[in-house]
Amino acid sequence: MTDEQNDYGAGKFILAGGVVIFAIGQSLLFIIVAPMARSIGLTELQFGLTFSLSNVTLIFAAPFWGRRSDAVGRKPVFIIGLFGSAVGTFFMAIALQIGLTGAASTALLIAMIMFSRIVYGLTASAIYPSASAYIADVTDWQNRAKGMALIGSANSMGSILGPMIGGGLAFLGALVPMYAAAAISLIGAFAAVIWLVEPARHLERKKQKNKKVSTLKVTDPRLRPYMIMWASFFVVFISLNFITAFYIQDKFGITDMAAVMRTASIALACMAVVITLVQGVLFQIIRISPRVLLRLCGPFLSAALFTMAFAPTLPVLMIGFGVLGLAFSCATPGINGSASLTVEPHEQGVAAGYLSAANTVGAILGPLLGTAIYKIQPNAPMLFGATLFMFISIYALFIPDPRPATLKSTVK
């Protein structure tokens, strides 16, 4: 193995570490911030609307950072994302701290939460486009799904560690885990500064006198089916995350806040463990084409949501979250891997940015839609999502098999 391959192998794990850190902050959002909404005086709808509006910035920021990664490099954009994650998480903790003391009016508290999320969205949105483009730069088309699965498993690992950190540090204070997550993000950013190596493939393109400049548009038909898939997936997934704490309280009669957080943490951990095992172990051993994974994620998601909607007990609910982990395990390498195979090397960053923006549609609509439908009945968001993905599963059957834009080998 060459020194260059060693560098890229280390680079992949630094990227994965950064995504783990990012996911830790995101999981804490759902297991700490969501259950705390009522405690700081926000209704379910106010909580959902606040996050929906503040997440609008992600639609514009993710494609911007994707383009910047094509222009200036994957490494600097990735580092900016980690620093932004630290700052945004810190501001969120400060806002919640003030909310718990009752020192701010509802309007001021909402404004503070929105500000922290806007800061977070404008900067942390750089992480996924740059990480996905980096993987596309250092894997060949035959190993693309495997590389994308590594990023997906890192995300799930963070979702496991988030609840562990939350539970392990909660005795020091409800918001101590948020401050810890901000500190870990800073450490990850400095680690990337020191050890992350810019892909040679990207450096070569920068040196070319007549280098190609991406003109990829959000309306490009090559990306359309994958953006539809991701937008639909994340509308359902984010709406589910935002109502899980309320669902546990109302359906199973759990009112103690610590118990709600603990139960929500276990549910997310069930999902994350499955994703880690499938993407981080199984998919690293067994090569499955992105096309197959693309077609499996919808049926798994519908099955998971129906299980949750009619779960008579908490253990059955946990099984539903485990099946949700299977859906996510297929979605990340299936959708991202397929999309990356349809575009040119110089378009990888902006393509990843557009896919992240499609995810953001879920981040915007999910909180509002989930909390609004929840008012009908507690399991209505699950039933809506399960029905939607029955149709999406049929749609996926008609998406053409992705053909690599280039069959030239890149560094594995």
Q: Could you spell the SSE succession in H and E letters?
A: HHHHHHHHHHHHHHH
Helix percent reads over 70%
CATH class bucket? Mainly Alpha
Overall SS class: mainly alpha
Topology:
Elements: H1 3-36, H2 44-54, H3 56-72, H4 74-101, H5 106-124, H6 127-138, H7 144-169, H8 176-195, H9 200-207, H10 224-252, H11 257-285, H12 290-309, H13 314-342, H14 348-374, H15 380-396
Describe what is shown at a glance.
The protein is an all-alpha fold.
General description of the model:
There is one protein chain. With 412 residues, the protein is mainly alpha-helical. It has one domain (3-198, 220-396): Up-down Bundle (Growth Hormone, Chain: A). Helices cover 79% and strands 0% of the residues. It has 15 helices and no strands. It has helices at 3-36, 44-54, 56-72, 74-101, 106-124, 127-138, 144-169, 176-195, 200-207, 224-252, 257-285, 290-309, 314-342, 348-374, 380-396. α10 packs antiparallel against α11. The termini are close together. Residues 1-6 and 406-412 have low confidence and may be disordered.
Features:
412 residues, mainly alpha, Growth Hormone, Chain: A, 0% strand, disordered C terminus
